[in-house]
Write a structure and sequence with these properties.
Elements: H1 2-14, H2 18-33, E1 37-44, E2 49-56, E3 67-69, H3 73-81, E4 85-87, E5 109-117, E6 120-129, H4 137-161, E7 176-179, E8 181-184, E9 187-194, H5 212-236, H6 243-256, H7 258-270, H8 275-291, H9 296-317, E10 333-337, H10 342-347, E11 353-358, H11 366-374, E12 378-380, E13 394-398, E14 403-406, H12 410-431, E15 447-452, H13 456-463, E16 469-473, H14 475-479, H15 487-500, E17 506-509, H16 536-541, H17 543-556, E18 563-567, H18 573-596, E19 605-610, H19 619-623, E20 628-631, H20 633-641, H21 659-675, E21 679-681, H22 689-698, E22 702-706, H23 710-719, H24 722-733, H25 738-751
Parallel strand pairs: 9-10, 10-11, 11-12, 15-16, 15-22, 16-17, 17-18, 18-19, 19-20, 20-21
Antiparallel strand pairs: 1-2, 1-6, 2-3, 4-5, 5-6, 7-14, 8-12, 9-13, 13-14
Helix pairs in contact: 1-2, 1-4, 5-6, 5-7, 5-9, 6-9, 7-8, 8-9, 15-17, 17-18, 22-24
Length: 762
């Protein structure tokens, strides 16, 4: 049954039109489990009904013409209950409703399962039998499993389908929009640029074409060109490889024969598809057949078929796979990637970057944090949309809601540009008060620091407005190299940073790699990297790396008094004691060097990051051996809620406004203040307007954030009142749903005139 399940699901993925795919599922399922009827209904939330979209067994004329209300019939009951229903005689059930158009009078046995994706009912999948009987538990389990698998494919197919029509179809004029997860607030209008876009059948977007003769000619020309390329390759390796490898080229020549692939591809073209789509449909069918063969050698040929077809596709589309040079890039680019990385952003010209789209990731993934540090609007987790759909397209991006509009019409673009202009007016207004202190209306003074290490250009622009650096991510220089940086290289970098603002505190976090920040030259393969070898755990296991970094920090600070060292991912007191022992060892070594240079080495303050929940219960013990605390709210939220913040599937569960997270942050602030230990919060929550209000009310007076948020948070502080913030905190701490908390906080921000910071428009 597992083989049947995989084959049925794959059909959906490979069929470019959703209704055709559903029809194929109905036919395959009916054959696989030997029932009299299989039907698929999809939900229409705008009209509040389910529509029959595919059937094998009911009247074909009913497809697309029969709709069942969300509260009507057995289909509606399955949607309401969100669970399968198994009935031996459906017509006797009190919720049974007769629809003459479907012609189901002869059927009695009924089994239906909901198709659900991320808690939303997308449709209903049903089986029917003429004789009266209950479907078996195995049949029910199979249907539920198939429905679960179909849900993801339907979502992806619907996303692809919005872009699948050719320009000569009137439907193409409809607005194409996709939805992702807000990654960095702001609005952007630009041209999509996909770096290193590969020619691949799997990524190709199906399209129709009415010009059959031209498409057939294009296909034949591409095959001829591919045949010549294959012949050159075949001759080049003649006599240099075993016979079985050489035989692959014999297969290539066979597939390139007009009576092989060509005949079937041209048949698809006559059905109204363009040449590339026809090739995709035929080849993916071949790949499925090869992969289903029992012979291992034949199964491996699926890879060869795909490789050859990708060559044909590249020739067919006349694609130059090399990307645009920096000079050729549009003035306003929206960078699109499967997953954004630090190196990708570092290499892209900042002057042309106006927005980011990441297919993978969530609102608090490392990529989203980088986007916010750059002050660039970003949308993450845009699943189900191939990169090629967004390449070289006009795009409107809303980082507040996660919305993306592709190829907008003039009206939509004009309205969007108006919102961008309003956003700029608000930004200019905030910038006009950049020299004023971050003090509330009732005289509560906040110290605002910056999180640095991601982008020197951006951070230097705003650092003069900050009271210091609350977090310098030392791992970024490590990640940007092909080896560990030398002590000399680190000294030069750290010295430049420390001496830039010698009168302001500068907190350097020791190397924090692992999790979503791997080193390319130090691979770590772990089943659960976020609970694995990362942060202080890794550096204590490798004191040779830790000591070199600490020595570099200390040597860079000779003659200066602003260095503070922070230890990440602390779980126990013993880790801090061991780290302090190594720091003392390095200090005495560097102190001797400083004397020789007639310089003075001052002992830096040592602090710990509070991000592992265990340390919340060890603050009194830690307070005796450290100089300061710093809360890493990103990881603390992740660990408290047991949610991988990079996983788009559970991104809605990751929420710093969760009452448990707020309660933990409040408890930490109270303990730290009672213990008289300075405390800073350096997570993303500090850079959010609502987060600032709540943290201020909890007792946090030092907030460290990405530099781009600094002036915005100053504006928030100057607009707020501490007593009102405390009342708001007491109110939200009594709530049980993070959505209610967020709504209440946003309502407060609206009431004090800060609505433009949480949505588009003034």
């Amino acid at each position: 049954m597992l083989t049947k399940l995989k084959r049925i699901v794959k059909e959906v993925n490979q069929t470019p039109v959703l209704d055709d795919a559903l029809s194929g599922v109905a036919k395959s399922l009916k054959e696989a489990i030997k029932v009299d009827s299989v039907s698929i209904y999809l939900a229409n939330y705008e009209k509040q009904h389910f529509t029959l979209r595919a059937t094998e067994g009911l009247a074909k004329s009913a497809i697309g013409n029969v709709s069942i209300g969300f509260s009507e019939g057995l289909i509606g009951l399955i949607g309401q209950r969100e669970e399968p229903i198994n009935i031996s005689n459906a017509q006797t059930h009190p919720r049974f409703k007769h629809y003459p158009e479907v012609q189901e009078e002869q059927y009695h046995a009924f089994l239906g399962a909901p198709i659900i994706h991320q808690r939303k009912v997308l449709g209903v999948l049903t089986l029917q039998q003429q004789r009266k009987r209950l479907f078996s538990q195995d049949e029910e389990a199979f249907l539920v499993t198939l429905a679960m698998q179909l849900a993801v494919e339907i979502v992806n197919a619907e996303a692809r389908g919005r872009f699948s029509l050719s320009d000569d179809h009137p439907e193409q004029n409809e607005i194409k929009s996709v939805k992702g997860v807000p990654g960095s607030s702001g609005l952007a209008a630009g041209v999509g640029v996909v770096q290193n876009l590969l020619v691949n059948l799997r990524n190709h977007v199906p399209k129709r074409s009415g010009d059959r003769e031209t498409q057939i000619q294009n296909y034949r020309s591409a095959v001829m060109q591919t045949r010549q390329q294959v012949e050159v390759l075949s001759q080049r390796i003649q006599g240099e490889v075993p016979d079985d490898v050489q035989a692959i080229f014999t297969l290539y020549h066979h597939l390139l024969d007009a009576n092989s692939l060509g005949r079937e591809v041209e048949q698809k073209i006559t059905l109204g598809w363009d040449a590339a789509t026809s090739l995709k449909m035929v080849v993916e069918n071949y790949i499925t057949q090869f992969q289903g063969m029992s012979d291992a050698y034949m199964r491996e040929r699926a890879v060869d078929v795909e490789d050859l077809s990708n060559r044909i596709l590249a020739n067919l589309l006349n694609l130059d796979t090399s990307r645009l040079t920096r000079e050729e890039l549009p003035d306003k680019c929206i960078l699109v990637a499967e997953e954004l990385t630090a190196t990708m952003l570092a290499e892209f010209p900042k002057g042309k970057l106006c927005g980011l789209i990441s297919i993978r990731g969530s609102s608090n993934s490392h990529a989203a944090i980088m986007a916010r540090a750059l002050g660039v609007p970003a949308v993450m987790g845009v699943t189900g949309v191939p990169l090629s759909l967004l390449d070289n397209k006009d795009i409107l991006l809303d980082g507040y809601t996660g919305g993306i509009i592709v190829s907008p019409n003039q009206t939509i673009e004009r309205e969007f540009q108006q919102l961008i202009q309003e956003e700029k007016l608000l930004s200019d207004k905030i910038l006009s008060q950049d020299d004023l202190p971050a003090i509330t209306k009732d005289n509560c003074l906040l110290s605002l620091l910056v999180n640095a290490g991601l982008s020197a250009d951006i951070e230097n622009t705003y650092s003069s407005y900050a009271d210091g650096v609350g977090l310098f991510r030392t791992e970024i220089p490590f990640m940007m190299r092909q080896r560990f940086p030398t002590e000399k290289e680190q000294v030069e970098l750290y010295r430049a940073m420390l001496s830039a603002e010698p009168d302001k505190p500068f907190t350097m976090r020791t190397l924090d790699v692992g999790g979503d920040k791997p080193l390319p030259y130090f691979p770590m393969t772990e089943e659960n990297p976020f609970l694995g070898w990362r942060g202080i755990r890794l550096t204590l296991d490798h004191p040779e790396v830790f000591l070199v970094q600490i020595r570099a920090m200390l040597r860079a600070s000779i003659g200066l008094q602003n260095l503070q060292i922070m230890l990440p991912m602390i779980t126990s007191v013993s880790e801090v004691l061991e780290a302090k022992r190594l720091i003392s060892q390095a200090f005495f070594e560097v102190q001797e060097e400083a004397k020789v240079q007639d310089g003075t080495l001052y002992h830096p303050k040592i602090g710990v990051m509070l991000e592992v929940p265990a340390v919340i219960y060890q603050l009194p013990q830690l307070a005796k051996i450290v100089d300061f605390f710093s809360v890493g709210s990103n990881d603390l939220t992740q660990y408290l809620l047991a949610v991988d913040r990079n996983n788009a599937r559970v991104s809605e569960l990751y929420d710093s406004y969760h009452p448990a997270v707020l309660a933990a942050l409040y408890n930490i602030a109270q303990q730290a203040n009672d213990l008289n230990v300075p405390i800073t919060l350096c997570g993303e929550l500090a850079g959010e307007p609502g987060g600032t209000i709540l943290l201020m009310a909890m007792g946090y007076r030092k907030l460290s954030m990405n530099s781009h948020s600094l002036l915005k948070i100053k504006w928030v502080a100057r607009s707020a009142n501490l007593n009102d913030a405390k009342a708001l905190l007491n109110e939200v701490l009594a709530m049980s749903d993070p959505k209610d908390v967020r709504e209440r906080v946003n309502l407060y921000l609206e009431s004090i005139g800060l609505g433009g910071l949480i949505r588009a428009g003034i």
